[in-house]
Amino acid sequence: MIKVGDALPSVTLQEYSEVEGNGCSIGPNPVKVAEAAAGKTIAIFGLPGAFTPTCSAKHVPGYVQKFDDLKRAGVDEVWCVSVNDAFVMGAWSRDQKAGGKVRMLADGSAEFAKATGLTLDLTGKGMGLRSTRYSMLVKDGKVAALNVEAPGKFEVSDADTILKQASA
Fold first, then answer.
1. Greatest Cα-to-Cα distance within the chain, rounded to the nearest angstrom
2. Helix and strand tally (H, E) in the chain?
């Protein structure tokens, strides 16, 4: 499993863009993790799936609500990573009103989850290999803090925890 001090893996995630600009076309666009994280402080949180109960009711809303506080604490970007496709993540971003605050990044083949060792096998529930629930504070591409939830829990990967770590 990835740990504090480790560099983020050099994988590519996908981000759905509804507006053309800044080198991004409408539709899914590749996000090379190592390049996108270079020189920035990023709050990344991962979760089992878009539109799932805890993820939609608590996890994403907390980061959307705390976005301004996170920015004041020195966080440049907030990323939500889930094993879903870019179209689903784009629809979920609209549903959660996350645009301009939380970048909803698709890990469709679970490459990021596998490379970080933050996987959750939900095959028995018909959902396949997913991401476990976690949050991490990343500075210049390296993990500065990592908070991994116990199965079925939502206690340490919330926006308040990352805010405290970013403010320290």
1. 42
2. 7, 9
CATH assignment at residue 42: 3.40.30.10
pLDDT of 26 reads 76
Distance CA 74, CA 167 (A): 8
Domain extent at residue 21: 12-167
Q: How many domains does the chain have?
A: 1
Asked whether the predicted pLDDT for residue 117 surpasses 90, the reply is yes
- 6 within domain boundaries: no
- Give the pTM: 0.94
**Domain-located, residue 4:** no
Please, are residues 117 and 43 in contact by the beta-carbon 8 Å criterion?
no
Q: Which of 33, 44, 47, 55 is catalytic?
A: 55
Is the pLDDT higher at 104 or at 21? 104
Q: Is 24 in the active site?
A: no
Q: b/e per residue, 29-54, with b = 16+ CB within 10 A?
A: eebebeebbeeebbbbbbbbbbebeb
The pLDDT tens digits for 3-33 are 999 999 999 999 998 766 666 567 799 999 9
